[in-house]
Design a protein that fits this description.
homodimer, 317 residues, alpha/beta, TIM Barrel, two-stranded antiparallel sheet, globular
Amino acid sequence: MTTGTSSLGLPMTVPAEGLPGRVRIYEVGARDGLQNEKAVVPVEVKAEFIRRLAATGLGTIEATSFVHPKWVPQLADAEQLYPEVADLPVELPVLVPNERGLDRALALGARRVAVFASATESFAKANLNRTVDEALAMFEPVVARAKAQQVGVRGYLSMCFGDPWEGPVPVPQVVKVCRALLDMGCDELSLGDTIGVATPGHVQALLTALREAGVPVSVIGVHFHDTYGQALSNTLTALQQGVTTVDSSAGGLGGCPYAKSATGNLATEDLVWMLQGLGIDTGVDLGRLVATSVWMAAHLGRPSPSRTVRALSHQEQ
Amino acid sequence: MTTGTSSLGLPMTVPAEGLPGRVRIYEVGARDGLQNEKAVVPVEVKAEFIRRLAATGLGTIEATSFVHPKWVPQLADAEQLYPEVADLPVELPVLVPNERGLDRALALGARRVAVFASATESFAKANLNRTVDEALAMFEPVVARAKAQQVGVRGYLSMCFGDPWEGPVPVPQVVKVCRALLDMGCDELSLGDTIGVATPGHVQALLTALREAGVPVSVIGVHFHDTYGQALSNTLTALQQGVTTVDSSAGGLGGCPYAKSATGNLATEDLVWMLQGLGIDTGVDLGRLVATSVWMAAHLGRPSPSRTVRALSHQEQ
């Protein structure tokens, strides 16, 4: 049989009931997607990647991290990269692990920063060598100083559903850390399923508990990993609960260091395919985005794990 | 960082509201999954695959197809295979394209058969060399004769959402063919998104239209492909609409011949991961199922495309 000739570049648009009209995609490919790449990607390639992402219509692109170069060598070029892209007409948040990182980001004129907390003691210890409370105490002056300069602050919260050491994470424990991040001044949260184990009932339960704790859904972003193939159904559940900010990574770049499979972050293309079919506005040109991911995949020397990228670019698995 | 030591063999069980308590998984790996494999899988391997699938707790396993060997050489061993597995305590439906196929299936004692219709003229022409109505006319005596012998009949309907030649498929057109299949005596339907383009609003619209046309949800099965990564969110939508039969393929075997990517059928493991997390009974032992898919992948010489299989078996991509 031959391949069909009609264009299937977009799904049929049929809105489902009770979903938002617009979703803000928070693109993490340039930071979260690249940070675990062993071979250092040249700074000019990173800058071009971000420029191409911006040209697809993505409005929020996390650019880099001002973490100590010793911990994330891939992002040691943050000082070189940020000025290359700072003039793009998009939100360009950067990760800052501590006050030193904030200083570096502010010196370059960053207008949005993000801190990276943990919902579990085990991951706080492994990732930050601190207790959950000690990590929050470390972030307090970071958030306060950023706010004093009208710099927006996102609070990432990892291990919101399962933790590789502790197993399932109790919902009240996650709510407590969310409240602490908001109380210290974070403008928005990103609820991370860092190891990709969540399923829709768990997502619904956490979002319900946050609503009951007085957290407005407008400050909540969701950050699902596709390690077990669950990211998009969890995202759909979050949209049904009123969430309108979704983290994803162009081409599905990046992943969880605890799962050997490369399937980590939800691919922005797979997300956009679903949102376009639902008639939900994202502002993103899917064809340009696929082309960008194919271009980046060529630089990294392996195909994108995104199924939509593969289908639309006819990449072999 | 080191990998965690606690067991994450199962997601945390948190039921979502409005979902069924039990889902019948209709396993298609042995037929739909294998039929496009170029290298012929030995009949004893197929029989062992089906035995292992049955041992995981799967209750419905489509075994083979009594199509003419010229069209699907991989399944030319149907006469040898079926008797090898016929005594398993599971439902073992077989595909029958026409009366000749039905004769062959009945001669071996098959108690459940399936016919394969198309919602679109283009695919009916390409796959069956007939119009939609001509194909239905061909199935009429097949269904009538099966029913006369109390043999159950499933009606597959392909291209229910998008068609590679025609683009988006109008919902009324799909409803019409569904009604025709039920009116001629089919006990159940399988709504196929053969090229994987559907999104949740489209799924909701088709299921709503079928309900309004008087089709009971209890006879509807859904058959989603993961070509664009959408299968599980579409499945979740179908469950929210009351569907309780879901087609899937162990290890994600098989795929759509129109997409070059190997990511075709929804992987049974990815489905079971979601259903277990939702507290929905499937009767399936996920560990045994993953082991079965890893075993089959070794026979086929390439890793399973299922993300859950990869994560739980630590297969590299």
